[in-house]
Amino acid sequence: MKLERLLSIIILLLNRRIVQAKELAERFEVSVRTIYRDIDAINGAGIPVVTYQGTNGGIGLAEGYRLDRNVLTNDELAAIVTALRSISTSYGNEQHLQLMEKINSVVPLQHSEEFQNKSSRVLIDHSPWDGNERLRPKLQLLNEAIDSCRVVGFIYSDAEGAVSHRMVEPHMLIMKGREWYLKAYCLDKEQFRLFKLKRLKELEINSEKTFIRREFSMQEGAVGQSSSHPSNLTEFVLRFQADSRYLAEEWFGIEEIMSLDDGSWQVRKAYPEDEWLYRFILGLGHHAEVLEPPHLRAIIASRAEQIANLYRTDKPT
Questions:
Q1: According to DSSP H, which parts of 92-164 are helical?
Q2: In CATH, what number is assigned to the domain containing residue 265?
Q3: Residue range 123-154, pLDDT digits in tens
Q4: 154, 218: one domain
Q5: Structural domain harbouring 203
Q6: Cα–Cα distance, 117 to 85 (Å, whole number)
Q7: For the chain, what is the mean pLDDT?
């Protein structure tokens, strides 16, 4: 990912006087053009990177420049390592490991043990229980396409089951709720769209088509941003069985549940009403009952009846 690559380049330039652009491109498996874009970004952040011409030329920091050690404290470096280690659970690659090693190398020896303790306090594991080996090739290919600004094509099945072939300009990979999404400009729809990676197949880079990155705000990159607007939310009330308190706490938190006189537990929440909400409530099984609103209770009851009919032993063959 770009942030890790930029940090790696900065650390390399701090430790070496001159580095060839081609060497950086090969190390990070991107194009030389991408490396020069990275250098422009580093310059824009206030770190003076210059290009030296000639036989022994290359990329280096301006003569006499040194990054102030106080710019990144040990606590801040530990936070970066923690973030990288957590990202690696679902998006791991060799660059992450190399960057963590480099950050460890700049920590003074006398602070090494303390640093290791600080960087090992938290691990946010984004990977699903069944692993994500099928997604890794897609992530790697899309990351390559984003870096090289190349159009990709794929077959996509949307939430309604409609299947279509898409050609898109990939701009950003997003993880939300343990699911990976691609933010891309769809050439057919002529607008930015979100694509769930699990619904992609036959993903290919078009080697002949490149694009210029389009501007869009970070809010546009958020998943479900518009659906979480207050006007799109449905308030509902769930009652959990007395022996299902643990389940209510697991999904909603101990502060959100209220005890009732009969020993059961009540939760009042507001979520966007869509297929995800119906599947979520049905997934709670017999542990929870919808009390309000009436229309949501009717929808869940109807779907539960359809499920029960699938398992009837007396249904006609």
A1: 94-106, 112-119, 136-148
A2: 3.30.70
A3: 666 565 555 667 778 888 998 898 899 999 99
A4: yes
A5: 136-223
A6: 14
A7: 80
